[in-house]
Design a protein that fits this description.
Blueprint: E1 4-7, E2 10-13, E3 18-24, E4 33-39, E5 46-52, E6 58-60, E7 68-73, E8 78-83, E9 92-99, E10 113-114, E11 118-123
C-alpha cells in the first residue's frame, strides 16, 4: 500500500520560510518521481517541484524558481521542500505526490499517488 504523509505546513509572514516534508511508505521506494504540488481555492492544482529518485534531477515551476528547493533522502523515503521568501500568492494546500510514469514532469495528471495535503498560509 502506497502512502504519502506530509508535514510542516503552517502560517508565516511574507518573506518568511517553511519546510515541508513528505514521508512515503515502503512501497514508494519503487516510484521514480516524487514531487510537490499546490492548489489554491478556485484554482487548478499546479506542479511546484519534482525530483527523480535516481540522480536527483529536479524540475521547478516558474513561479517558485530561486525561492524553493526540493530535496530527498531515499534511505527514509522522504522528500522535502524548503520554501524561502514566501509570498501571499504561495498560499495553498500543498500536496506530495509520486509517479511511476516515464517522465511525468510537473503535470498532476501523471501522478498516481497523493498525500492528504498540508496547508501553507502566507500573510502580508
Amino acid at each position: 500500500l502506497v502512502q504519502l504523509v506530509e508535514s510542516g505546513g503552517g502560517s508565516v509572514q511574507a518573506g518568511g520560510s517553511l519546510n515541508l516534508s513528505c514521508t512515503g511508505s515502503q512501497d514508494t521506494s519503487r516510484l521514480m518521481y516524487r514531487g510537490w504540488f499546490r492548489q489554491a481555492p478556485g484554482k487548478e492544482r499546479e506542479g511546484v517541484a519534482v525530483i527523480r529518485r535516481t540522480g536527483g534531477v529536479t524540475l521547478y515551476g516558474d513561479s517558485i524558481k530561486g525561492r524553493f528547493t526540493i530535496s530527498q533522502d531515499n534511505a527514509v523515503n522522504t522528500i522535502s521542500l524548503q520554501m524561502n521568501s514566501l509570498k501571499p500568492e504561495d498560499t495553498a494546500m500543498y500536496y506530495c505526490a509520486a509517479s511511476n510514469s516515464g517522465f511525468p514532469g510537473l503535470a498532476p495528471d501523471f501522478y498516481n499517488y497523493w498525500g492528504q495535503g498540508t496547508q501553507v498560509t502566507v500573510f502580508s
